[in-house]
Design goal:
The chain is of the alpha+beta class. The protein has 2 helices and 8 strands. Strands 1, 2, 3, 4, 5, 6, 7 and 8 form an 8-stranded antiparallel sheet that branches. The longest helix has 26 residues. The protein is globular and about 45 Å long.
Length: 146
């Protein structure tokens, strides 16, 4: 069952090229993992893989359009998915209009479990990125739960 979810758009206080470069190298995602969660996680420029609740899960870069779009796809996951990030210039050259879109093939049970939560999660990611780019702590962020 095809699921398509688009986050809200957020204005990030970074120019498109700077924001794009932070996401284009999959090794950069390792820095956001707590030390106790890094075991079993491997990353290179194009992909990241981990064992999550007994499942081998991987994500790889499927397409790079410098400074405007990154597309990721599953690389060993329980279901096929694609994630697209867009980095559009705003009227201010030091800010970027940012959005995340997810396309996934979910069975009925997975759609019932994840469907409504995906929209909320994507919107929270955009809000968090906007907050961090402005030097604020993302709302609801609790570092002790990492």
């Amino acid at each position: 069952m095809a699921v398509n979810v688009k986050s809200k758009k957020g204005i990030v206080s970074k120019p498109p090229h700077e924001l794009y470069m932070a996401f284009t190298d999959m090794r950069n995602f390792m820095q956001f993992l707590p030390e106790d969660k890094k075991e079993g996680v491997t990353a290179d420029y194009d992909s990241i893989h981990a064992k999550v609740q007994g499942f081998d899960v991987g994500v790889r870069v499927a397409d790079r359009v410098p400074y405007s779009k990154l597309e990721f796809q599953d690389d060993g996951a329980p279901f096929p998915f694609r994630v697209r990030m867009t980095f559009d210039p705003s009227s201010d050259p030091y800010r970027t209009e940012f959005q995340i879109c997810v396309d996934a093939e979910l069975n009925f049970m997975m759609k019932m479990l994840l469907g409504s939560k995906l929209q909320t999660a994507l919107d929270q990611m955009v809000d968090g990125l906007v907050a961090m780019s402005e030097g604020r702590m993302p709302e609801g962020f609790d570092p002790s739960k990492i």
